Every structure is written in C-alpha cells, then in structure tokens.
C-alpha cells in the first residue's frame, strides 16, 4: 500500500495496515478495535448503515480476507475528518473505494464508504 501521508490523523496508518495485513493477522480484530469508537457509525453499499464497532469488526473480515494491496490515489485531511480514495486489488481485479472518516477523541467515529458493490462482488469481494 501507498502509505497515507504524515498529515493523516493517528488512526489511519494503523487502519490501512490492518486492512492489508491479511485475515490471519486480523484474527478477532483486537488491533483494529482500539481505533474505533464503540458507537461507530458505518455506512456502506452492501452493509447499509450499522452502528457499533463490534458489527464493523465482524463485517470487515470479508474485505480483509480478499484484499491484496491498496493503492492510494488521493487523501484529504481536516481537523475532524479525512477522505481517502484508493484502488483495492482483489482476487479478480481492482475496485475503486472512497472512504470518508470523522474522528472524535482520537478514534474513528464515523465511516462512510463508497464503491460499486456489483464490481466488488464480481472481483472476488465478500
């Protein structure tokens, strides 16, 4: 993965390192959990809108199990949020993702994810 810049808020470098670290390293998500607010507000095309870090930790496993690399395209950071655009390499090709983060107390409070779900599933996402 192209590393997010030094301007990125503290949770982001670890977040992306975990996403590309493989499912064996992910385990039960104990390294990701401290980066997330307990009442994380997540929204994505397949999962819809869910609340709670525990639900996100379970749901992100399919992505982690199938992603090879993440190629950073663009990132923008502000005092309370970030936007990151990247291509994720899945078993049958790349898929473009945009993630919008809101931070509170040094943790990811809100994550809004955009991608084409049909393309994601066709390329081996789960």
Beta strand %: 35-45%
How much is the average pLDDT? 94
Which CATH architecture? Roll
- Tell me the major beta sheet: 6 strands, mixed
CATH class: Alpha Beta
**SS-based class:** alpha+beta
List keywords for this structure.
126 residues, six-stranded mixed sheet, globular, 6 strands, single chain, Nuclear Transport Factor 2, Chain: A, alpha+beta
Write structural notes for this entry.
By secondary structure, this protein is α+β, with helices and mostly antiparallel strands. It has a single domain (11-122), classed as Nuclear Transport Factor 2, Chain: A. It has helices at residues 11-19, 23-26, 53-59, 61-66, 117-122; strands spanning 36-44, 48-51, 70-77, 81-90, 93-104, 107-114. Strands 2-1-6-5-4-3 form a 6-stranded mixed sheet, with helices on one face. Strand 4 (81-90) and strand 5 form a beta hairpin.
Topology:
Elements: H1 11-19, H2 23-26, E1 36-44, E2 48-51, H3 53-59, H4 61-66, E3 70-77, E4 81-90, E5 93-104, E6 107-114, H5 117-122
Parallel strand pairs: 1-6
Antiparallel strand pairs: 1-2, 3-4, 4-5, 5-6
């Amino acid at each position: 993965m192209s590393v997010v810049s030094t301007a990125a808020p503290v949770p982001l470098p670890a977040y992306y390192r975990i996403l590309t670290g493989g499912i064996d390293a992910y385990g039960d998500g104990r390294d990701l959990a401290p980066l997330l607010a307990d009442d994380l507000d997540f929204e994505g095309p397949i999962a819809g809108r869910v609340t709670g870090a525990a639900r996100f930790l379970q749901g992100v496993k399919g992505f982690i199990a199938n992603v090879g690399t993440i190629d950073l395209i663009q990132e923008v950071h502000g005092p309370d949020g970030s936007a990151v655009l990247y291509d994720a390499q899945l078993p049958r090709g790349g898929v473009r993702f945009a993630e919008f983060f809101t931070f509170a107390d040094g943790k990811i409070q809100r994550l809004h994810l955009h991608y084409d779900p049909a393309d994601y599933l066709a390329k081996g996402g789960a």
